């Protein structure tokens, strides 16, 4: 897919990765960029078309699809992390993360898939995480939602192949955004993540491993669970002591 002259919609475009995606799309010659946010007044990027959107609200999602029927590239970026564990944490918080990080993305895909088909197939980018593949205390709800979103991405890729829609999963470790502000470790710049993801779209890639951390984690998946967990413990310890 050629980004130049495309019409893109980015969720969570008011800051962080979403803003970087919108900026990169403009720089690559996208004809129109819909920048969406729950609070549209917080979008401050010149050159975009701002839309109000709450991806957890089906009425809001449907309204966005009706307002943007010309979309050929959907960037599912919006997400949350509540720092919740699965056994002792708030079940409402777990459900809230699932509603945002998985069902929110799926709802967007379901609403926009017909428009993508009419507009030649286009592409969908789902921003996932290296935590699609591993958990950790204080982040297991996030791990659950990203693992579910990864499975969902793989499923919709198969279902949308017939209409010619590329579905690209983007995995990363940590990006230099507000969500990761409390982690004193190396992080990928939002602009670098957006560029890697859009390069992947232009190369028709089903998966983008945007940084070394995500590449390392995926390379460990063939290990037995106890070996995988031990390797991740060592990697996380090394990361925090750099």
UniProtKB/TrEMBL annotation:
Key word Oxidoreductase present: yes
SUPFAM superfamilies cross-referenced by the UniProt entry: NAD(P)-binding Rossmann-fold domains
Key words, A-Z: Oxidoreductase
Pfam families, alphabetized: adh_short (PF00106)
Superkingdom assignment: Bacteria
UniProt-listed NCBIfam families: PRK08264.1-5
Sequence similarity: Belongs to the short-chain dehydrogenases/reductases (SDR) family.
Protein name as annotated: SDR family oxidoreductase
């Amino acid at each position: 897919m050629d980004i130049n002259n495309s019409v893109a919609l980015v969720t969570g475009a008011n800051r962080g990765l979403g803003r970087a995606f919108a900026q990169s799309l403009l720089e690559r010659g996208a004809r129109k960029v819909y920048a969406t946010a729950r609070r549209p007044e917080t979008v401050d990027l010149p050159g975009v078309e701002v839309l109000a959107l709450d991806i957890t609200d089906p009425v809001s999602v449907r309204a966005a699809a009706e307002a943007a029927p010309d979309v050929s590239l959907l960037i599912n970026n919006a997400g949350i992390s509540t720092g919740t564990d699965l056994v002792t944490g708030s079940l409402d918080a777990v459900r809230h993360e699932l509603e945002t990080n998985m069902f929110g993305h799926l709802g967007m895909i379901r609403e926009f898939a017909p428009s993508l088909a009419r507009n030649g197939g286009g592409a969908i980018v789902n921003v996932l995480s290296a935590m699609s593949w591993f958990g950790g205390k204080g982040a297991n709800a996030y791990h659950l939602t990203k693992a579910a979103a990864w499975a969902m991405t793989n499923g919709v890729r198969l279902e949308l192949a017939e209409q010619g829609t590329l579905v690209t999963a983007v995995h990363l470790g940590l990006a230099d955004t507000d969500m990761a502000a409390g982690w004193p470790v190396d992080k990928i710049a939002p602009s670098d993540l957006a560029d890697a993801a859009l390069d992947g779209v232009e190369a028709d890639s089903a998966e983008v491993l945007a940084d070394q951390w995500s590449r390392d984690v995926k390379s460990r998946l063939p290990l037995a669970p106890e070996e995988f967990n031990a390797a991740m413990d060592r990697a996380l310890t090394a990361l925090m002591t750099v």
